[in-house]
Structure to design on (361 residues):
């Protein structure tokens, strides 16, 4: 790599990604990264995946992700580029996944596959993850070798003036070295079915279960002393998490700087929550002005609240048109989940862009 300080140019006759901070007064190139022969100036998935596997920090060019400038036997005029340092780029982001179900603890399906293979893929790209799901009664503890973590269990979560002990269990997907944390409760998650009883009736306390799950995850993360960069919530059961983070936990040093991504999944229901839902939330110290969506609470209302308090939204092809319109009106970054299975890099880049934008602000 030859760097011309006077012209602010870098030349590479072999093919490297160069990176140099425009804010660096010495105007010296801070590093180089060799590229495979087939690399080009486009951000194709092969090149991007290669770059992300390298243990370097490099600089994104603005506009973000429109192109990565690769030096291929040409002179690069730095004066024409605005170069933005990004400490989150490449690897070592901390991503918290809050999910409704994960394969193989649930049968293989659209939601359980996303909630399994997205965290796995993000971890395989050298990021650090924590993954949560409810410990529904249909999860076979013996087969999947779940065990309780005593140091994380024992806290009481109060809902409607009643103490509900929080139980934390863990299991590992040994072949991919991925650990799953389970939120358990004798009161809420021992039933053998997920949201409906054997006769097809919507559980009347599903709203309380969502409160317990959101609070349980947040309290466990605090006990772990783990500070996530991204919190990615999936499905309606985790829809209260953004609201809790922006209100009850807004002053928590572990959660203040995190960015929240909310995924709207095809898990809607026609039933309404109990009329006491707002009262339950108010008793958890959520201010009354944040409860506007819950006068007649149901699926649409809880999703809209999640959108309001998240930084970015992911939608699927099956997302209700009403909610798509609500998301678009919010003006927040949106990722459309692809119809095929090639989505991990899309989310990884989406996280990076969200964090980079935060750095600029």
């Amino acid at each position: 790599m030859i760097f011309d300080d006077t012209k602010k140019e870098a030349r590479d006759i072999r093919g490297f990604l160069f990176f140099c901070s425009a804010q660096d007064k010495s105007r010296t190139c801070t590093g180089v990264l060799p590229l495979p022969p087939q690399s080009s100036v486009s951000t194709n998935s092969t090149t991007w995946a290669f770059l992300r596997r390298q243990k370097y920090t490099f600089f994104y060019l603005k506009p973000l992700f429109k192109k990565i400038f690769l030096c291929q036997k040409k002179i690069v005029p730095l004066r024409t580029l605005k170069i933005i340092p990004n400490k989150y780029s490449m690897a070592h982001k901390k991503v918290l996944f809050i999910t409704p179900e994960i394969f193989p603890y649930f049968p293989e399906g659209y939601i359980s596959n996303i909630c399994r293979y997205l965290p796995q893929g993000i971890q395989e790209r050298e990021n650090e993850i924590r993954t949560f799901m409810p410990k529904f009664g249909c999860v076979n503890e013996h087969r999947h070798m779940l065990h309780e973590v005593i140091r994380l269990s024992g806290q009481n979560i109060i809902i409607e003036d009643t103490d509900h002990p929080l139980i934390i269990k863990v299991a590992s997907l040994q072949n991919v070295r991925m650990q799953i944390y389970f939120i358990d409760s004798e009161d809420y998650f021992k039933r053998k079915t997920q949201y409906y009883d054997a006769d097809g009736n919507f559980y009347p306390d599903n709203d309380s279960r969502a409160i317990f799950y959101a609070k349980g995850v947040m309290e466990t993360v605090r006990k772990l002393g783990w500070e996530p960069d991204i919190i990615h919530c999936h499905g309606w059961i985790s829809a209260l998490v953004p609201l809790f983070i922006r209100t009850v936990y807004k002053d928590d040093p572990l959660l203040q700087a995190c960015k929240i991504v909310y995924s709207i999944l095809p898990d809607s229901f026609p039933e309404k929550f109990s009329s006491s839902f707002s009262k339950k939330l108010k008793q958890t110290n959520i201010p009354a002005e944040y409860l506007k969506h819950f006068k007649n609470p149901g699926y649409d209302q809880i999703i809209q609240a999640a959108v309001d308090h998240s930084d970015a939204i992911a939608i699927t092809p099956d997302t209700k048109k009403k909610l798509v319109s609500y998301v678009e009106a919010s003006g927040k970054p949106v990722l459309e989940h692809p119809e095929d299975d090639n989505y991990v890099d899309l989310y990884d880049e989406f996280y990076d862009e969200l964090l980079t934008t935060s750095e600029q602000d």
About this structure: The CA atoms of residues 29 and 188 lie 57 Å apart. Confidence is low (pLDDT under 50) at residues 1-91.
